[in-house]
From TrEMBL:
InterPro entries: 6-blade_b-propeller_TolB-like, Serum_paraoxonase/arylesterase. This is SMP-30/Gluconolactonase/LRE-like region domain-containing protein. Gene3D superfamilies: TolB, C-terminal domain (2.120.10.30). SUPFAM superfamilies: Calcium-dependent phosphotriesterase.
Length: 314
């Protein structure tokens, strides 16, 4: 008798699973697991034989290249630190978070050893956590405000005494640990999540210092993945999850609850939602257009920014 009752229930359960797989899980499994992709072992072997190890650049999430000069800006951490503290991957051991994260600039066209062409950029006017000036970096985006005159198309950049380097605004994802404001002690990040912000720094091309301009913090900046600058004081960013911790966060891997937000002088807001794990955002070659990879959906989505009403249109 029990078997007769369980059989239709089991059938309905399997049917529901099949429907969910086709509508939700299949794309997630194939996109996240990389199923169906091929690996060129010969290419991997050749690349490994030509690589040089540089420990300070061991966990660089993102980079930006100044094409005229060949200067490469990187937001870097430590591999061991990332194993303990990387909120976007649910690694929330704040007590063992890295304390040496930094922005580096690499001269990719210079002469001499690789080490001689790597410089750490020192932040100024930045307090960090409890005055320790530390950053917990996860990505970098850069806005260049060009000097005049600029090189003509096809001309080489000559960085001599007459050259005025452009101003660069660096936008950094900073996954700060949660802290009790009254005691300065760490809170349980597994329960409350990270206290993430977007930090804006100002520098000039090739300088070894960057001046802190502003910290953007908002209830809408809850799981920032990457920033795309619009102006020196405004930007778009992606939240790869809907919440910082909890069951709903786990459901983000099979549901479309990521978002794109906008921050400007007057504050921050969400301008696009229902995105399947938006793992970044980058400006298109065309003005006011931005690409967003929706990983869970296996799609690249093109949005257009509307400056007049500060909205984003798919």
């Amino acid at each position: 008798m029990a078997s007769n009752v369980l059989t239709p229930i089991l059938g309905v359960f399997l049917l529901v699973l099949a429907v969910l797989y086709q509508t939700h899980f299949s794309t997630s499994i194939w996109a996240f697991a990389g199923l169906g992709r091929s690996l060129d072992l010969n290419l991997t072997s050749r690349a490994a034989s030509q690589c040089q190890s540089y420990p300070e650049l061991g966990a660089c999430e993102d980079g930006w290249m100044h094409e005229d000069s060949g200067l490469l800006y990187l937001a870097c951490s430590s591999i061991e630190g990332r194993r303990n503290w990387l909120p976007t991957m649910d690694r929330l051991n704040a007590a063992k978070r890295p304390t040496t994260d930094a922005v580096y600039v690499v001269d990719t066209r210079g002469s001499g050893s690789f080490a001689s062409r790597v410089n750490k950029i020192q932040p100024t006017n930045f307090d960090g956590i409890n005055g320790d000036a530390t950053l917990n970096l996860h990505g970098i985006a850069v806005l260049e405000v060009a000097s005049k005159p600029t090189p003509s198309e096809g001309d080489d950049l000559v960085m001599d005494a007459s050259y005025t380097p452009p101003t660069l605004y660096l936008y950094l994802n900073n996954h700060r640990p949660p802290m009790d404001p009254s005691t300065g002690k760490l809170l349980n990040a597994a329960k409350v999540g990270a206290n993430s912000t977007v930090e804006i720094f100002k520098t000039t091309l090739g300088d070894k210092k960057m001046e802190h301009v502003r910290t953007y913090t908002s209830e809408h900046i809850h799981t920032p993945n990457r920033v795309a600058p619009i102006s020196p004081d405004s930007f778009l960013w992606t939240n790869d999850h809907a919440v910082k911790v909890g069951l709903r966060r786990l459901m983000s891997y099979v549901s479309n609850d990521g978002s794109v937000g906008y921050c400007g002088p007057s504050g921050c807001k969400i301008v696009a939602d229902k995105l399947g794990y938006p793992n970044g955002i980058v400006a298109s070659a065309k003005p006011n257009q931005f690409w967003v990879p929706a990983m869970r959906e296996g799609k690249m989505k093109l949005f257009e920014w509307q400056p007049k009403d500060q909205s984003l249109v798919l």
